[in-house]
UniProtKB/TrEMBL annotation, chain A:
Keywords: Cell membrane, Membrane, Transmembrane, Transmembrane helix, Transport. GO terms for cellular component: plasma membrane. The chain crosses the membrane at residues 7-29, 98-120, 141-167, 173-194, 236-256, 284-306. Pfam families: BPD_transp_1, BPD_transp_1_N. This is ABC transporter permease. Residues 94-303 form the ABC transmembrane type-1 domain. It comes from Psychrobacillus vulpis. Belongs to the binding-protein-dependent transport system permease family. It is a multi-pass membrane protein. CDD domains: TM_PBP2. Signal peptide: none annotated. InterPro entries: BPD_transp_1_N (IPR045621), MetI-like (IPR000515), MetI-like_sf (IPR035906). It is found in: Cell membrane.
TrEMBL record, chain B:
It is a peripheral membrane protein. PROSITE patterns: ABC_TRANSPORTER_1, ABC_TRANSPORTER_2. It comes from the Bacteria. Keywords: ATP-binding, Cell membrane, Membrane, Nucleotide-binding, Transport. SMART domains: AAA (SM00382). InterPro entries: AAA+_ATPase, ABC_Ni/Peptide_Import, ABC_transporter-like_ATP-bd, ABC_transporter-like_CS, Oligopep_ABC_C, P-loop_NTPase. Belongs to the ABC transporter superfamily. GO terms for molecular function: ATP binding; ATP hydrolysis activity. Residues 20-272 form the ABC transporter domain. It is found in: Cell membrane. It holds the Pfam family ABC_tran. GO terms for cellular component: plasma membrane. This is ABC transporter ATP-binding protein.
Length: 313, 342
């Protein structure tokens, strides 16, 4: 319990720090959003009025406090480009990106873990060479290219897949899957190629430990040694890796949403940056950091579930 | 009526009293560049029912590999039992299919290891790990198994067994964990308990407790014990018979009083000098100069020759064979080849 409270405090402190950094970065960034909004021809009174309207005439710490108050109450200001509340824009795009990230994550977990176990059980020179080449390949392939390959070979040949655009879940579950599966695979494949080795290594590491010998000395069969004890213990290091994967998957959606023209957060981010839509960029950055920090928080909580040494200390 | 094949199976059939018989055991490790580590090299011995046999020798002499070979828990690769036979009450273990061997482990043979701190699974409760062993070999319900586990914990000296059963290994001290290990090893009343340096990692004060507990368990269940140690003081206290191991071979085998009073092998003599002397505050008076050669670099001739103060020219050339002076006392040394010796 004390552990969980410590984690919650850490979570809040991290979010506060991140918000401060995000806010400061946008203060020192070149390019005046007012000028961009009004064009270079605007006169001083126009500029002053807008500044007042946006609260940009206030001292910095007041601006920051206002912004944080907004963050907490879900008011991130209005987008300059779209003239709509940032929260609304995010809410529109969020289902797309979250669906994509979740499907990707599920694919990575259900492929990388069994694959890692499979390889760990058949540990020999040949399979080591084969599988480390797979890893090299997975690391080298750029995701936009992999995405295009998938479109070319799967998307074009099977009507199930939508290769451009999005179908909401509420409209058609099959349609949504058809739109999200290929982009999810595009992010998942390189992740699997790299991360299954972590699973394999975690398992091999456990197999070398003394307690495994004790379990075998009790007459427990290999199936139980692997699936009851070794896998359960390996989940602790594997969890660390999957915490990282989640952040990488969220980052991965940004590029992949471009390739597959998915109207998600990634696409919104790129638009907002090119228009110097500061409130929107700030909002998205806060969203992405929130997701990453929140996932770390969840991972920390899961540690304590998996590992009694953490839970009971 | 007579079946000659029964006799061929094992000489254990001839000797009612024999529990374990190891014959010509060779366990080798494949190392890089084709080198072979002969960790256990032609080892033979037997253990009688109810007997405590000590296996002694310096670090690296092959004691653990011998015991793990009996359990067939040698990691393969790189290790492999390349030759020999191991009979448990006449049943050959080395040719047993893996699933039948798993029935022997933890049931007929229980084992305790040197490292109590790391020998238990950190993420399962003590209770879970004892119950797992009980339910693997006995047809009992989970609730029954838990009751039995509490009983076992009480036997090994936990007064708060009902609490301990729900605790995790990291919440217990080394001595407590070793007692849990004993409870696990004894959970199915094994015929043989193999204890690989069960007290080495523990405080001196706890060592005696653990040893006494093992001897109590032995009396209670009538099991035999193979006790691996390099502490000659412990040997003198608890063993009936002693096997002295050096560089993968047994160099001397004797009843405990003969080993101390009629010591033959120069290596055993040297080992006996290393008994900590209580009067000088547990200072090791003497340790044998040099170390056991690694198992892939055993010298030609007698493997102890280069460290032996009695070594003759012959010792560096010819491998001595195990000489049987009397049925109870065997020694592998050129000094005893002709009658008389030294
Ligand atoms: N995995 C391995 N690969 C190669 N050689 C090994 C391996 N395991 C053990 N050996 C060899 O077997 C020899 C005997 O090892 P063993 O663990 O049986 O010694 P021991 O008598 O139990 O020593 P200790 O008192 O330190 O426990 C070692 O010297 C080592 O050279
Ligand atoms: Mg050892």
């Amino acid at each position: 319990m004390a552990y969980i409270i410590r984690r919650i405090i850490l979570f809040v402190v991290t979010m506060a720090t991140v918000s401060l950094i995000t806010f400061s970065v946008f203060q020192v960034m070149p390019g005046d959003p007012i000028r961009i909004m009004l064009g270079t021809e605007a006169d001083e009174t126009q500029v002053e009025t807008l500044k007042k309207q946006l609260g940009l005439d206030q001292p910095l710490h007041i601006q920051y406090m206002d912004w944080v108050k907004g963050l907490v109450t879900g008011d991130l200001g209005d987008s300059i480009r779209f003239s709509r509340p940032v929260t609304e824009l995010l809410a529109d795009r969020l289902p797309v990106t979250i669906s994509l990230a979740l499907i990707t994550l599920i694919i990575v977990v259900i492929v990388a873990i069994p694959l890692g176990i499979f390889v760990a059980k058949r540990q020999n020179k040949l399979s080591d060479v084969v599988f480390s080449s797979v890893t090299q390949l997975g690391m080298a392939v750029p995701s936009f290219w992999l995405g295009m390959l998938l479109i070319l070979y799967l998307g074009m040949n099977f009507s199930f897949f939508t290769i451009s655009g999005y179908v909401p879940w509420t409209q058609s579950v099959v349609g949504a899957l058809g739109a999200l599966l290929l982009p999810a695979l595009t992010i998942a494949i390189p992740q699997i190629a790299v991360k299954f080795r972590y699973v394999r290594n975690a398992i091999l590491e456990q197999l070398r430990l003394d307690y495994v010998r004790t379990i075998r000395s009790k007459g427990i069969t290999e199936k139980f040694v692997m699936y009851k004890h070794v896998l359960r213990n390996s989940m602790i290091p594997i969890l660390t890796v999957f915490g990282l994967i989640t952040a990488e998957v969220v980052a991965g959606t940004i590029i992949v949403e471009q390739v597959f023209s998915l109207p998600g957060i990634g696409q919104l981010l790129i638009t907002s940056i090119s228009y110097r839509d500061f409130p929107l960029v700030q909002g998205i950055v806060m969203y992405i950091t929130f997701v990453v920090v929140f996932i770390n928080f969840i991972v920390d909580i899961l540690y304590s579930v998996l590992d009694p040494r953490i839970r009971l200390n | 009526m007579h079946s000659p094949q029964v006799k061929l199976e094992s000489s254990a059939n001839l000797q009612e009293n024999m529990l374990l018989e190891v014959n010509g055991l060779k366990t080798y490790f494949q190392m890089e560049k084709g080198k072979v580590a002969k960790a256990v090299d032609n080892v033979s011995f037997s253990i009688n029912k109810g007997e405590t046999v000590a296996l002694v020798g310096e670090s690296g002499s092959g004691k653990s590999i011998t015991s793990l070979s009996i359990m067939r828990l040698i990691p393969k690769p790189p290790g492999e039992i390349v030759e020999g036979s191991i009979f448990l009450e006449g049943k050959e273990l080395l040719t047993l299919p893996e699933d039948e061997m798993a029935n022997v482990r933890g049931n007929d043979i229980g084992m305790i290891f040197q490292e109590p701190m790391t020998s238990l699974d950190p993420v399962f409760t003590i209770g879970n790990q004892i119950v797992e062993s009980l339910m693997r070999h006995q047809k009992i319900k989970k609730s029954e198994a838990y009751e039995k586990a509490i009983e076992l914990l009480k036997i090994v000296g936990f007064s708060r067994a009902e609490v301990i059963i729900n605790e995790y290994p990291h919440q217990l001290s080394g001595g407590m964990r070793q007692r849990v290990m004993i409870a696990i090893a004894m959970s199915n009343n094994p015929k043989l308990l193999i204890a690989d340096e069960p007290t080495t990692a523990l405080d001196v004060t706890v060592q005696a407790q653990i040893l006494n507990l093992m001897m109590d368990m032995k009396k209670k269940y009538g099991s035999s014990i193979l006790l691996i140690t390099h502490d000659m003081g412990v040997v003198a206290e608890v063993a009936d018979r002693v096997l002295v191991m050096y560089a993968g071979q047994i160099v001397e085998e004797a009843l405990v009083k003969d080993l101390f009073l009629k010591t033959k092998h120069p290596y055993t003599k040297a080992l006996l000098k290393t008994i900590p002397n209580i009067e000088v505050e547990l200072h090791r008076l003497d340790s044998i100069p040099g170390t056991v050669p690694p198992a892939h670099l055993f010298p030609k001739g007698c493997r102890f020759a280069e460290r032996c103060t009695y070594a003759m020219a012959k010792c560096h050339e010819e491998d001595p064979s195990l000489i049987e002076n009397s049925p109870d006392h065997k020694v592998r040394c050129h000094l005893y080849e002709r009658e008389g010796g030294m």
